[in-house]
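We modelled the chain as a single entity of 223 amino acids. Its sequence is:
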Amino acid sequence: MPYIEPGEYKSIYTEFQSPVSRFDCGQHCAPHNGGEPVCCSTRHAIPVAMVEEWKFLQSRTAMWHIFRPRTSAERKVKEELPRDHRALECHGAAQCERENRALSCRTFPFFPYITKGYEFVGLAYYWQFEDLCWVISNLQIVERQFIGEFVRAYELLFRRIPGELETFRDHSASMRRAFSRMKRTIPLIGRAGDYHEVIPSTGEIRAVSGEAFAKRGLYRNDE
């Protein structure tokens, strides 16, 4: 069975350090979240790591601990995780050790979009956060360096753990179903940094301009 050693995360972390953008996106969302970036608060986003990544993090930092649910909804999130994944929590943005961020922190708010035919075509976002995350309303600020490192990291993971490809294929299908119900197309950043939209009913992918993407939630009137 394909497998990834905990130590292999060292090379992933070394090669995936670029920020999403040259802008400090946390400055835009923190005022709406009690002064803390949305992605740095488990009240909104709970970081998840495979057991091997969790072991690697334990070997190099005390910044992380196993997440302790506070509500029934949080318990449900934790209980529904695959057996080889762990919900984690850090000490918060003020004490962040950027070199020890989990992969789910480095990639937020994006996940690899996988087609029905198992093709990794680009970056989609976790749509549950589109009313809160400033980046989701400003996809044109995502840097190509970040996109390239994102793609290389997941290509490695998919080679070593094919089950992860299946997981994100399922998540991409869930996004298509959700956006089909909302009668919306899915914004997509291509692997080369270009922009697309997915027709959720058919899975068709077509090119668009970055300006075509609508702003959401708190940032609807943001300039």
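As a brief sanity check on the tokenised model: The longest strand covers residues 120-125. Helices lie at 8-15, 26-29, 51-60, 72-79, 103-107, 144-160, 162-181.
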